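From the methods appendix. Each design record in this collection lists the tokenized structure first, followed by the designed amino acid sequence. Records were kept in a plain field format so they could be parsed without special tools. The example shown here is representative of the layout used throughout.

RECORD:
FOLD TOKENS (446 positions):
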């Protein structure tokens, strides 16, 4: 078959395959209530920076009532009340009496879905309690910290019939969705390799100014920095892996098989502390565990390889470092530069401009909701991720990013940790679908 014919064949073949893409369904048996007239009640656990973003978007969505929210920080509670008042929405009851106040909130009957945006160590505990209370759960990234927690999410969702969505907003980035379309329509032929990562200097997030983290600090410095002190792992894999996993149909005809991870030395946080606080600052003597650059290579059941990078402890520009490569072409797309090469169309050995491809393969969701998305967080993608959870609750269906995605993507953290600790030895992903990945069909983003 010549190149053009092969590409045409692949495009036709995948377009025919695309006909098999399903709208996600849920067995009605597991559902505790019927949603009347498209009205849903949404509640929140954790209304810090991220939780308040979701809350604002949810409050502005037609048919959504915010009935309750929970946060242990009185400042976060006050700010949340202010948002609801500014938007002219009814007051919601606040639960802030201790770290387990969320359990009391979950006893309410007037909650259909709960958005969880707390520090990582709370995610699974809160999502499990939410599902056990008969409510849809949505949990920020990453969803779980250990393999046991990944299984807790899956087991609880299956036992209760309650969905658990991972709130991976990067799956909704405009270029990511266009490349997803290109992959599905065979532009790159058969996919062989992909690259992604979270390369974002978090130095001024991990430490307050003046230098502080942990108890008494504010924002993510209160909790996130401790993970770099105690664990040598890629503890934030899903912004990169989520989008690539959907392109490769992970858990739906394909699955993550094993990974090997390698960590560089850990000197970035010490260097930052010494620059800001001097070489005698007590933090400069801390034994930081997390390697500054952690590189994991994943092998999938269908034979693709994926390189995932974690790089947050050094000064550097923001980059998710995406690349997707197949038998007919390749694209590199990052926030500040995008390029593409398609065999037979691009000039031989030279990159082509991405813009025309972006326009041609722009996802229907973006075309439809461009105006509404504009101005919402992270270039518009946050609009879509909050919307998908609310729609899943309204329509009583599984979200497109489901509990198996939450478990598989989040499991990179403990698996990378084990691999690094054992000299980059291979670590096998549990099959969270219990074999069902062989027959589960891809689902549409709509
Ligand atoms: N998807 C994204 O782009 C994105 C962006 C930022 C943060 N996040 C994720 O969102 C989550 C929250 O991050 P953030 O930046 O809002 O952090 P944050 O520290 O600003 O907010 C966390 C909130 O949780 C509250 N909290 C802690 N323990 C609690 C408990 N037991 N009960 C109730 N409330 C509790 C804190 O008081 C705080 O208000 C994290 O998982 C983070 O990784 C995702």
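DESIGN:
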């Amino acid at each position: 078959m010549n190149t053009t014919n092969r590409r045409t064949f692949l495009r036709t073949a995948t377009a025919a395959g695309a006909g098999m893409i399903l709208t996600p369904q849920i067995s009605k048996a597991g559902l505790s209530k019927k949603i009347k007239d498209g009205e849903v009640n949404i509640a929140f656990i954790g209304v810090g920076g991220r939780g308040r973003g979701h809350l604002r978007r949810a409050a502005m969505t037609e048919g959504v009532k915010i009935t309750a929210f929970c946060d242990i920080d009185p400042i976060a509670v006050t700010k949340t009340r202010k948002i609801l008042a500014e938007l002219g929405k009814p007051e919601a009851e606040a639960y802030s009496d201790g770290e387990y106040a969320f359990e009391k909130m979950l006893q309410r009957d007037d909650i259909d879905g709960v958005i969880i945006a707390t520090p990582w160590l709370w995610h699974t505990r809160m999502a499990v309690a939410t599902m056990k209370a008969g409510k849809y759960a949505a949990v920020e990234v990453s969803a779980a910290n250990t393999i046991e927690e990944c299984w807790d999410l899956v087991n609880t969702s299956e036992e209760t019939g309650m969905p658990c969505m991972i709130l991976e907003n990067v799956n909704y980035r405009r270029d990511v969705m266009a490349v997803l379309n290109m992959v599905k329509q065979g532009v790159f032929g058969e996919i062989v390799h992909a690259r992604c990562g979270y390369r974002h200097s978090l130095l001024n997030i991990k430490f307050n100014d003046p230098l502080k983290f942990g108890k008494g600090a504010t924002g993510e410095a209160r909790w996130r920095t401790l993970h770099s002190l105690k664990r040598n792992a890629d503890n934030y894999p899903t912004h990169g892996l989520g989008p690539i996993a959907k392109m490769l149909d992970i858990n739906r005809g394909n699955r993550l098989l094993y990974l090997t991870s390698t960590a560089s030395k850990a000197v970035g946080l010490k260097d930052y502390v010494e620059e800001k606080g001097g070489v005698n600052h007590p933090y400069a003597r801390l034994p930081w565990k997390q390697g500054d650059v952690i590189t994991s290579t994943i092998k999938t059941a269908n034979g693709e390889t994926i390189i995932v990078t974690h790089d947050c402890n050094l000064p550097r520009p923001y980059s998710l470092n995406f690349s997707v490569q197949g038998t007919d072409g390749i694209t590199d797309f990052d926030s500040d530069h995008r390029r593409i090469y398609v065999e037979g169309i691009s000039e031989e050995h030279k990159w082509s401009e991405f813009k025309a491809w972006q326009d041609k393969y722009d996802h229907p969701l973006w075309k439809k909701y461009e105006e509404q998305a504009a101005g919402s967080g992270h270039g518009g993608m946050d609009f879509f991720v909050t919307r998908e959870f609310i729609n899943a609750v309204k329509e009583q269906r599984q979200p497109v990013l489901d509990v198996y995605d939450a478990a598989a993507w989040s499991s990179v953290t403990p698996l990378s940790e084990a691999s690094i600790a054992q000299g980059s030895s291979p670590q096998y992903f549990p099959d969270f679908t219990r074999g069902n990945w062989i027959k589960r069909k891809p689902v549409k983003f709509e």
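APPENDIX NOTE: Residues 1-20, 27-32 have pLDDT under 50 and may be disordered.
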